[in-house]
Amino acid sequence: MKKSILFLSLSFMINLNVNAQKAKTEEQVATFEDGTKITYSVLDNVGDDQLRNTIAAFNQTDDRNISCMSLMYGRLNPDRFYAHGELGFMLGTGFGGINVGGTYFLGASEKNYELPMSIRSSSNGQTETRYVIKSPAVKNRHFGVNVEAGYKRYAVMDNNVSVEGRSYALTSFSSGEIALGFGYLATKQALFKVDGKSYMGGSHLFHLTADVLFFPGAKFAYTTSDSASAAVPLVGGDITNGKIGFRLLLQGQTALKFNKKSNPTSNFGFYYRLGVIKSDFTAAAGAQLTSSGICVVAGLGFFFSFL
């Protein structure tokens, strides 16, 4: 315990509030409490100025299965929309579906906030000093109508269904999905040039949607194991939760900070997804919450952004 307290006491941070302006600034000099001077300039601090194109690959669990992988392409146009397309792939069974859509912006606002940025760190034995400046920045916010359309294929091989004592084994299930609702998007961005040579910063994009879901065109196939089940066909109402559902979804991306000697035109980081969905089919769900069809949606992976 004493060693931990000693180690923590040897690590400290020096902060400095600066009067940087929005958007690009001339080179400035930050003087810290220990006398250290660092030159820097703010090249960008407006959220919507971040890189426009994103490719993300991640694993997710939803009403399909925890084995479902996704590959997504997203495009941000701050004046009009945030659009995306997504391909699903399930381990062992292949193609998992396709989805396209996005949020069409009806309004926007911005919020000024103070952005802390560590522009240098140095170590001397167990002592680490981080030099942090705090600069004004702009968070951009957009809201509008969210619309999506897709097709889902489920991993249901040998998924047994029992109806009034009759037994069926599903061999396939697929369904259309249409989403209509509300969308909100927020962006943050930072890019600093330090000592005239290193570029540091990152970006964040947050997307919230609340949708009503419609499930047209469900198709399924099954096998029977006895004469009783063979005599009575399995119908959609026996295995689905209705034609209407809902979804509340948080998703976004956070870029790793970069430190390069050339002006960055790309970055990478973590992509995340978290929410709940009430879908038409949950027999193969990886994280089902209730018998009425409500499931967890969760995903985590990497993304790459570029101009």
Condensed summary:
The chain has 307 residues and is mainly beta. The chain has helices at 2-10, 227-231, 236-239, and strands at residues 12-17, 28-31, 37-44, 53-61, 68-77, 81-90, 94-124, 127-153, 159-163, 166-194, 198-214, 219-224, 244-255, 258-260, 266-278, 294-306. β4 (53-61) and β5 (68-77) form a beta hairpin.
E-strand count: 16
Uncertain regions: pLDDT < 50 for 5+ in a row? Answer: 1-12
Shape: elongated
Tell me, rounded to a whole number, the average pLDDT: 87
* Rg, Å, rounded: 25 Å
Main sheet makeup: 10 strands, antiparallel, barrel
Secondary-structure-derived class? mainly beta
Number of continuous helical runs: 3
Approximately what portion of the residues adopt beta-strand conformation?
A: over 45%
Structure explained in plain terms:
With about 300 residues, this protein is mostly beta strands. The chain is built from three helices and 16 strands. The N terminus is likely disordered.
Write the layout of secondary structure elements.
Layout: H1 2-10, E1 12-17, E2 28-31, E3 37-44, E4 53-61, E5 68-77, E6 81-90, E7 94-124, E8 127-153, E9 159-163, E10 166-194, E11 198-214, E12 219-224, H2 227-231, H3 236-239, E13 244-255, E14 258-260, E15 266-278, E16 294-306
Parallel strand pairs: 1-8
Antiparallel strand pairs: 2-3, 3-10, 4-5, 4-16, 5-6, 6-7, 7-8, 8-10, 9-10, 10-11, 10-12, 11-13, 11-14, 13-15, 15-16
Keywords:
ten-stranded antiparallel beta barrel; 6% helix; elongated; mainly beta
